[in-house]
Amino acid sequence: MRQPWAESAGKRLDIIARIACLSAGLALLVAAIVALFVNSDDAALIPVLAAGFLLVLTPAVVDRLRSRRAGYFEIHLIGQIAANARKSADALRRLGMDRELDAYATIYNELRGPELVVVRGEVLDRIVQRVANASVIEKFDKDEVKELFLHGSPIVRVLALGLIEGDLSLIDSSVLLDAIDRSLTGNEQYHALKLVRNGWGWLSPDERGRLLSVIEADPQIQRGPSRSALAQQIRELAQNSRIR
Predict the structure, then answer these.
(1) Cβ(124)–Cβ(156) under 8 Å?
(2) pTM of the model
(3) Under 8 Å CB-to-CB from 119, ≥6 apart: which residues?
(4) How many Å apart are CA 143 and CA 158, to the nearest integer?
(5) Contact 203/211 with Cβ under 8 angstroms?
(6) Alpha helix (H) ranges present in the chain?
(7) Residue 176 in contact with residue 213, Cβ under 8 Å?
């Protein structure tokens, strides 16, 4: 029979091991994400991201093994894209981005909790930047991108906005209206506002007016400093348009 002191010591060691894994994993993830934003080598950073992600996931995986449940946790983002936008998924595969985007999406999905909001947002911004770069190189179908946004998960909706950021000819005012007025995340609303600002010249006067009305009516925008700043820049663009 196992002694009580042994059980107590085992529990303490288990807690210490969990804290160590989470701390080390988060440190690696934060360091890698910061490095991504200072133009470091992406290929060299992927193993660091993977290592951090595995450390963060270790306690959960152990629990799954202990309870004899399946431990499948990877997010197949390209598969989600292919469900509504096959040509877009094929284009991302041709660019060799399928595994990278799946890895980022899995990391994003696992980073939960209020203390990880900033890191989670940075991971999502990285996904947006990568697909925006892809959209500069590869021509994506406008109707597919719209379908991707309308029928996608929260992360896929933001990814669709990233594709538009890379090619403003894909801009669609109905997508932007939905992303601002019925956004599923603050990050989605932020990128929609950014697109309104950057794509102002691609929008008709009527489209601009509708978007501005939605922006003014949404109280959530003023509660986010970045979104509030973008809204103000859009107001200034609207004012300049009226002057001309």
Answers:
(1) no
(2) 0.68
(3) 26, 29, 30, 33, 111
(4) 16
(5) yes
(6) 4-36, 42-66, 77-84, 86-94, 98-110, 117-137, 142-151, 154-166, 173-181, 186-198, 205-217, 219-223, 225-243
(7) no
Of 147, 60, 63, nearest in space to 106 by CA = 60
Residue appearing with tokens 């109707």 = 143
On whether the CB atoms of residues 214 and 181 are closer than 8 A, the answer is: yes
Instruction: Summarize pLDDT for 96-106 with one digit per residue, the tens.
Output: 887 777 777 77
Q: At what angle do helices 154-166 and 142-151 cross, to 10 degrees?
A: 150
Instruction: Tell me the C-alpha distance between 218 and 221, whole Å.
Output: 6
CA distance 15 to 31: 24
Contact criterion met (CB below 8 Å) for 107 and 53 = yes
- What is the rounded distance in angstroms from the CA atom of residue 239 to the CA atom of residue 244? 9
User: How far apart, in Å, do the first and last CA atoms of the chain sit?
Assistant: 86
Q: How far is CA 79 from CA 60, 64, 68, 91, 167, in A?
A: 24, 25, 27, 13, 23
Largest CA distance in the chain: 86
Backbone φ, ψ for residue 96 (5° rounding): 70, 30
pLDDT less than 70: residues of the chain: 1-75, 110-117, 119, 241-244
pLDDT digits (tens, 9 = 90+) for 118-127: 767 777 787 8
Task: Measure the CA–CA gap between 219 and 196, rounded to whole angstroms.
Answer: 18
Which residue's structure tokens are 């200034």? 236
- Which amino acid is located at 109 in the chain? N
